[in-house]
From TrEMBL:
Entry keyword set: Cell inner membrane, Cell membrane, Membrane, Transmembrane, Transmembrane helix, Transport
Cellular compartment(s): Cell inner membrane
Membrane topology value: Multi-pass membrane protein
InterPro entries: Sulf_transp_TsuA/YedE (IPR007272)
Protein name: Membrane protein YedE/YeeE
Tree of life domain: Bacteria
Family from the record: Belongs to the TsuA/YedE (TC 9.B.102) family.
One Pfam family, short name: Sulf_transp
UniProt source species: Shouchella xiaoxiensis
Membrane spanning stretches: 21-42, 48-68, 89-110, 116-134, 155-174, 194-216, 244-262, 313-334, 346-372, 378-395
Length: 411
């Protein structure tokens, strides 16, 4: 009998393929088209393009169950590195695509292309560690929260609400962390070392290879269970029905991130929109949000429509893409909320929101986007988030949340 590890959040993958929820699929596509048309007539032309990219991101994330949270949990708990190696493929493809874009420095619309290269300091260390704890308690990372909401996982609505609240609180504390706490200058493998983007790409490939090799060595030592195989359609139908291979999804996500960079001039991000949403809500109930340090250089965003915000549009697209994918697989359903996972979602959401603002982003903006942009802070983010994961594994049982065990068997 084969031994597998599978997270509680994806047990539905063991079930046979369900019939498509046709009405929901049609409704999701209709909403996506209405959003795209609305943006085309009311916003800059890049906004409808970003909405469609977001749909592609959400569709891919759901079909592959491409997890950042689960990847960190599996390597930390039982030593299974399959998902981490998929991360390395994703990062390798992204760096390969980002390098010429950043070297040329222009986008489809003639604006400047800039990667995510952020300072390395106390805020990064604390924020990434808090985020690592939060994503293991909250049941998903930033992108995971969005696609789980799109898939109907009820408890993730709680995570999302408190993610927004935590991010807003951190924006109010912005000056303390960014001004009062020690910080070094941003470090780029490409521009801070003299290697250029070609040399930075070569170093990055070596680092990804080394990390992949380390995960293989860990697996040989710990002999972890394998990830459970999941049902899927055959041939081209697999695009719409069932699970995608992790490595295929890794390539698609990297390509869509590069397309985002070419469209709006910065890589894919998630959590800055949460800060905007929360800050607008705080302003509406009487807080002097414009006086917060976080908004000193971008007060116009507070006054503009949320549909003018590129990250907001991407987020809406991710939710819609995941909804369409889940309905196409016959998997959209609202799940049960228990007191334990609700409490964990509140704490996890707050920690992720607060941590993301301190760490210059989340698993997408800081880890994925940072490393793809050849920034040193992306690697440090990953190490600190992994550290937070180890601590969170001890906390999860307190809320009735499962932790993968070496002898877990799913048949």
């Amino acid at each position: 009998m084969a031994t597998y590890v599978q997270d509680q959040s994806i047990k539905t993958e063991r079930k046979p393929l369900n019939n498509p929820q046709t009405i929901l699929v049609a409704g999701g596509i209709a909403v996506a088209l209405i959003l795209t048309i609305f943006l085309a007539f009311t916003q800059h032309i890049m906004q409808p393009i970003l909405a469609l990219i977001g749909v592609g991101l959400g569709f891919t994330l759901f079909h592959a169950r491409f997890g950042f949270t689960s990847a960190f949990r599996r390597i930390a708990s039982v030593g299974n590195g399959q998902s981490m190696r998929a991360h390395m493929v994703m990062l390798a493809v992204a760096c390969t695509l980002f390098a010429p874009i950043l070297a040329i420095g222009t986008t489809f619309f003639g604006t400047e292309a800039n990667g995510y290269v952020s300072p390395i300091g106390v805020s990064l260390l604390v924020g990434a560690f808090l985020f690592g704890i939060g994503m293991q308690l909250g049941g998903g990372c930033a992108s995971g929260t969005l696609y789980a909401v799109g898939g109907g996982r009820s408890v993730m609505f709680i995570t999302l609400i408190f993610f927004i609240i935590g991010s807003t609180i951190a924006a109010a504390h912005f000056d303390f962390w960014m001004v009062d706490m020690p910080s070094a200058e941003p470090f780029s493998l490409a521009t801070s070392t003299g290697l250029g983007y070609g040399g930075a790409w070569a170093v990055s490939m070596l680092l990804f290879g080394l990390i992949a090799y380390i995960t293989i060595r860990i697996e040989k030592k710990r002999k972890p269970p394998k990830m459970a195989p999941v049902p899927s359609a055959i041939g081209w139908k697999r695009i719409f029905r069932g699970s995608w291979p992790l490595f295929a999804a890794a390539i698609v996500l990297a390509a869509l991130n590069a397309l985002t960079l070419l469209t709006r001039g910065t890589p894919w991000g998630v959590t800055s929109a949460f800060t905007l949403w929360g800050s607008k809500a705080a302003e509406a109930i009487g807080f002097d949000v414009a006086s917060w340090g976080y908004w000193q250089d971008s007060t116009a965003a507070l006054q503009a429509s949320i549909f003018a915000d590129t990250t907001t549009v991407l987020n809406f697209g991710v939710i819609l893409g995941a909804f369409i994918a889940s309905a196409a697989g016959g998997l959209f359903t609202f799940t049960k909320i228990t007191p334990g996972n609700a409490a964990a979602s509140v704490i996890g959401g707050l920690l992720m929101g607060y941590g993301a603002r301190l760490a210059f982003g989340c698993n997408v903006g800081a880890y994925f986007g940072g490393i793809a942009s050849f920034s040193g802070h992306g690697y440090i983010w990953g190490v600190m988030a992994l550290g937070g994961t180890f601590l969170a594994l001890r906390l999860r049982p307190l809320f009735g949340l499962s932790v993968p065990k070496p002898k877990d068997t799913f048949c």
